[in-house]
Amino acid sequence: MNLEDIIKETKTYYCLECGKCTSLCPVSRYNSNFSPRFMLERALMGFGDELIHDRELFSCLACYACSNLCPSDVDYPVFTQKVRNLASGEGEHGDCAHSGILFSLMRLMSRSDIRQKRLDWLDGCHTSEKSEVLYFAGCAPYFEPVFEDIEVSPVNIARNSIKVLNALGIEPMVLPNERCCGHDLLWTGDVETFKKLAQFNAQMIKESGAKKIVFSCPEGYRTFKIDYPQYVELDCELMHITELLAQNLSSLSFRAKRSNPEVKRVTYHDPCRLGRHLGIYEPPREIIRAIPEIKLTEMEHSGDESICCGTSAWTNCSSYSKQIRVERLHEAKATGAEALVTACPKCQIHFKCAMVDKGTEKCTNIEMKVMDIVTLVADALGDKSSE
Amino acid sequence: MEEVKIGIYVCHCGLNIADIVDVEEVTKYATTLPAVVVSRNYKFMCSDPGQNMIKEDIKELGLNRVVVASCSPLMHEPTFRRTIQEAGVNPYLFEMANIREHCSWITEDHKAATEKAKALVSAAVRRVYYHQPLEIKEVPVNPNTLIIGGGIAGIQAALEIADSEHKVYLVERDPSIGGHMIQFDKTFPTLDCSACILTPKMTSVGMHPYIELMTYSEVEEISGFVGSFKARIRKKARYVDEDKCNGCGVCVTKCPWKANSEFDLGLSERKAIYTPFAQAVPNIPVIDTEHCAYFLKEKCRACEKFCELGAIDFEQVDQIVEVEVGNIIVTTGYDSFDPTPITQYGYGKFDNVYTGLEFERICNAVGPTSGKIVLKDGSEPKSVAILHCVGSRDENYHEYCSRVCCMYALKYSHLIKERTDAEVYQMYIDMRCFGKGYEEFYKRLSEEGVNFIRGKVAEVTDRAINEDEQGKLIVCGEDTLLCKTIRVPVDMVILATALEPRSDAAEVAKLLTITQSADGFFLERHPKLDPVATMTDGVFIAGCCQGPKDIPDAVAQASAAATRVLALISKGRVELEAATAVIDEEKCSGCRICNLLCPYSAISFIEDEKVSRINEALCKGCGTCVAACPSAAITHRQFTMEEITAEIEGVLV
Ligand SMILES: Cc1cc2nc3c(=O)[nH]c(=O)nc-3n(C[C@H](O)[C@H](O)[C@H](O)COP(=O)(O)OP(=O)(O)OC[C@H]3O[C@@H](n4cnc5c(N)ncnc54)[C@H](O)[C@@H]3O)c2cc1C
Ligand code: SF4
Ligand code: SF4
Ligand code: SF4
Ligand code: SF4
Ligand code: SF4
User: Which residue of B has its CA nearest to A27?
Assistant: First the structure.
C-alpha cells in the first residue's frame, strides 16, 4: 500500500483541515510538536517523505478521540497504522520503551519452533482440555516479571478471569502455546511479524475446536475482531469478558463481605480499544452497578469522551504520556472514588507507572488505587470463585 | 396499420458521447434493425440543425417513428417530442436511448460503451415499433393559489401574486406570519433593521384584498392535480373571535398565567393568552390551552371579564376550511439545529452558551434583554467566542454547509463590538462570504478588530488550568494557521448552529407528493435549470424549505415561484400526461390493491360496478399499479406487454 492508497482508504481526501482532531488529541494537548491535522496535511501536500521520518509519527495512541468526532470521518488512527508500515520499511520504529524487551518477546513468539512455559499461573483455576470456550490469556505471563516493580500483576487478572468464568460454570480451555495477538507490532508497522502471529493463533484455535473466545485484554479483542479478518480466517464468536459477565449477571452470587471493603466508591476508565474502538461502554458499568455496596461515579470525560491512558504499543512513551496519565488520575480523584477501575491490563500498567515514577515538575504526584474490573468482580464473588 | 418507418439519430453531444462511444459504428449498426429507414449521427441533435434534420427526414422519407440516441429523457424528451410534432408526427411516437449517462459517462472502455449503446438503440427501435399515437388533453387552471408558510418567502410570493389581482390563500402554522426573519434584530450585510423592512410587507399581507390569511392553521389534506387542487385546512381554535377582537391586548395584560415564550426561545415569558410579538399580523391573541388556568382547572376567565368586545370564546372549536386552487407554493422554511447532542460544547450545561437564534433575540431591542448584550447574571461580557459550523459540514450531523452562519457570525461580531467593549473571537473552518457585499462586510469586521482563528473548536469547558481561566468558559481548539493548540477563556459562547429541514418535512412532502433530497430539504425539479419547481406539476418550492439560504435568495426564489404560478394562471390551461395507465374493467377483479398503491391517489373504486377506475387527469403514468395488479388488468399506454418484451429482446439480441 502506498501513501496514495492510504489516503483513499482512510478518507483523508475529505479532511477539511479544521484542526478539531488536534484539539481533541490528548497528545497534542501537551506535545506541541504533534498535530494529527498537520500529519494528514503533509500527506496530502506531497510531503510523504518528511512524514515518514517524523519522530512524531509514532506518537499517536490510536485512541480514536479524533476520528470519533472528525467532521469528515477521517480515520486518522488507521492512517497512522498504515503510514507506520511504510516508515518501518525505511527503518523507522519510534522510541521503544522498556529497552525493547517486550518487542523482543513478541518477535520470539513469531518463531514456529519455540516452546513456551506460559501456564504456570493457573493454580486454583479450573480449566479443561476440551471446551467450547477458550480464554485468550495474551501477554499476561510475559508482562508479569517486567512490571513486578510497579506492583502490577497481569497474571492475577488472567487468574481472576478464569475464576470468574468458573463461577459462571465455564471451565475454559487455555492454549499452552498461544502467541501474542500482535497488536503492538501491527500498530508500529511490523505487519510481517504480525501476520505470522495471527496465522499461528488462528491455526491453533482452529485445531482446538473452540467456538467462542473470551478476552480480558481489550487489545487482543480488538485485534481479533477488527484486524485478524483481514489476514486470517477464524470462525469463532469473540467476546470481552465484561460482555459475557453483563449478560450473565443474574447467575453470579455476590457475597456480602468483599475482600477489599475499603473500596466503596469507584470510577470507571474506558479503555480506548473497548470503548471507542468497539463501542462497549455499558457492560462494564452494568457489572459495577450490580456489585453490592459499590457506587459508580463518572469522571468528567467518560464513555466516548474518555481520555486515553497515554501510551500505546510501548512506543514514544514520554513526559507527555505521564502528563496525560496524571491529568486523568486527577479527574478520577475528583470524583471522590477510592479506586479507578479499568478493563485493560495496559491501562493499569500505565497509571501505576505514572504514580511510581516521580516525574517532572510539570505534574504533581498523585496516588490512587487502580484495579481491573475482573479483580473487582472476583473479590466480590461467593466462595465458588476461590474454591 | 400503416407501414412503420423508423429514423435513428445518434448524437455526439460534443465529445461527451463521441469521445467514448463509436457513434459511426452505432449509426451503421442501426441500419440493420427492423423497419429502420434512415440512420444518421450529428454533433448536437438538440440544436436547430439537428432538429431540422429530423423534420426534413420526416417530410422526405415519410418517417412515422423516431429514435434519438443521446442523453437522458429527463433532459430532452420534451424537445424531440416537440420536434416531431412540428413535423406532423404524434409526439408519443418517439423513443430515446440514453447513451450518455448510461454509456459514455460511466466507463472509459470504448468497446463496452459502444456495445451497450448498440443494445440500447436496438431496444429503443423494437420498442418504438409498437408505440401508438396518444391524445394530449388540456384542463383549465384555477386562478387561486395556496401558499403554505408565512415567512419572508411566503410573504413575498403572496404579495406578488395578489398584486396581480389573483387570489391567494396564505396558511401559516404560527399565530402570526413573519417566520424567522421577524425574530432578527439586524440583517447582514447591510445591517438593515429586520422589523423595519419586514413589517410593512406583513401589514400589506394582512390588509390585502386578494390575500386570505389563515394563521394558526395547517393544511391537512391535498387532492387533485395541477390546475385544480383541493386543500383541506384546519384553522385551530384561538378561543378569540377574530371578527370581534380589535387587538387592544387587555386580555393579555390581565391574564395571570405564564409560559415560556416560543418567540424568545424560552429566554422570556409570555402569558397564557398572547400574541407572539408586538407587530404580529394578525394582531389577534390566541389562548394556549396547555397553560391557561381555565383549560387546566376550569377557573379564572379573567380575559373574558376584561374584554369589552366580548371576543373571548371558550367554546370555539377547530374549523375545517376547504379551498380550491390551481397551484401551490411551499415556503415552510427551516428549523434551527439543536446543539445539545454535541455535549463537548456545553449547550444546556453552561449558562452563557447560546445558539445563533437565541443570540438574535438577545440583540433585539424588544427581546428578553431589550437589546443589551449581557450574560445571564446581567453583566456585560468582556469576551465572546463564536463557533462556526455547529452541526454543519460534519458527517456526524449535517454534511452540507448552512451558508448563512458565517455571515450571521460576522453580523454578531459587529453588534457585539458596537454595543460592548468585548473582545470577539471567531473560530472558523473557512469564511464563506459568497454574496453581494459579503466579502466587503468580512473586511470591515477585520478592521473592527475581530479575532479570526482558523480551526474547529473541540471543546468548551469550565475547568480552568490557570488564574486567567478562572470563572471563564474556555474554548479549546487548534489555530491551524499557527499549528498550535489554543485555549481561549471567554465569558460568552455563541454557537453558529446549522439550518436544518423542518422536523415535519417528511409529512409535508407526503401531503404534497413532493420529494426530499438526501439532506432532507425539498427537492427541486432541476438544481440549476428548474430550481423552484418540483416533480409534481403545480407545486412549487421557495426559501429555506429547499435548502439553507439567505434572505435575498429566499426572496428571489419566492418571486420566481410566483412568476411560474402567474404564467400558468395567465395561460389558463395545462396539458396532461397522455402516457397513462388504463384498467380493463372486464379483467378487474375489484381487489383494490391498486387503489392503495397509487402514489398520486389516481385510482378509485366504483362501488356499483365493483371495479377500479383510473382518473386520467391524476395519473402520472408511474406504472406502479400495472406491476401490482394480480389480474393483469392494467395496461400502461406506453409500456404494453408487447413493448416491454420487444425492448428486452432488443437488449438481448
Ligand atoms: C441565526 C440566524 C440569523 C440569520 N440572519 C440573517 C441575516 O442577517 N440576513 C439574511 O439574509 N439571512 C439571515 N438568516 C437566514 C434567514 O433566516 C432565512 O433566509 C429566511 O428566514 C428564510 O425564510 P423562509 O420564509 O424560507 O423560512 P422561515 O423564516 O423559516 O419561514 C417559514 C414559515 O413557515 C411556517 N411553517 C412551517 N411549516 C409550516 C406548515 N407545515 N404549515 C404552515 N406553516 C408552516 C413557519 O411557521 C414560518 O413562519 C439567518 C438565519 C439564522 C438561523
Ligand atoms: S478533525 Fe478530521 S477534518 Fe478536521 S483536520 Fe482532523 S482529520 Fe481533518
Ligand atoms: S488517535 Fe488519539 S492519540 Fe492518535 S491522533 Fe487521534 S486523538 Fe491523538
Ligand atoms: S382564562 Fe386563561 S387566557 Fe384567560 S386570563 Fe385566565 S389563564 Fe389567561
Ligand atoms: S456558512 Fe460558514 S459557519 Fe455556516 S456551515 Fe458554512 S462554513 Fe460553516
Ligand atoms: S400509473 Fe397507476 S399507480 Fe401510477 S399514477 Fe397512474 S394510476 Fe397511479
Answer: B485
* Other beta carbons within 10 Å of A264: 13
Nearest chain A alpha carbon to B397 = A71
Question: Which residue in the block uniquely carries the three cell numbers 409535508?
Answer: B508
- Amino acid identity of residue B24, one-letter, is E
Using most ligand atoms within 8 A of CB, pick from A10, A21, A24, A25 the residue to mutate for ligand 3: A25
Q: Which domain holds residue B622?
A: 581-637
Exposed, middle or buried, B389 (CB in 10 Å: 0-12/13-18/19+)? buried
Classify A3-89 by CATH class: mainly alpha
Q: Is the ipTM beyond the 0.90 threshold?
A: no
Distance from the Cα of B453 to chain A's closest Cα (Å) equals 11
Phi, psi of A173 (to 5 degrees): -85, 155
Class for domain A253-386, per CATH? Answer: alpha beta
Q: Cell numbers at residue B185, please?
A: 434584530
B485 and A32: CB-CB below 8 Å? yes
Model confidence over A50-105: pLDDT tens digits?
999 999 999 999 999 999 999 999 999 999 999 999 999 999 988 888 878 899 89
Reported pTM? 0.85
Write out pLDDT tens, residues B16-31: 999 999 999 999 999 9
Domains A98-249 and A253-386 share a fold: yes
Name which residue sits closest to atom 7 of ligand 3, judged by CA: A25
CATH class of the region A98-249: alpha beta
Q: Is the CB of A100 under 6 A from ligand 2?
A: no
Centre of ligand 2 from the C-alpha of residue B396, in Å = 13
- Across the A:B interface, residue pairs with CB atoms under 8 Å apart total 67
**Pairing outcome for strands B327-330 and B145-148:** parallel
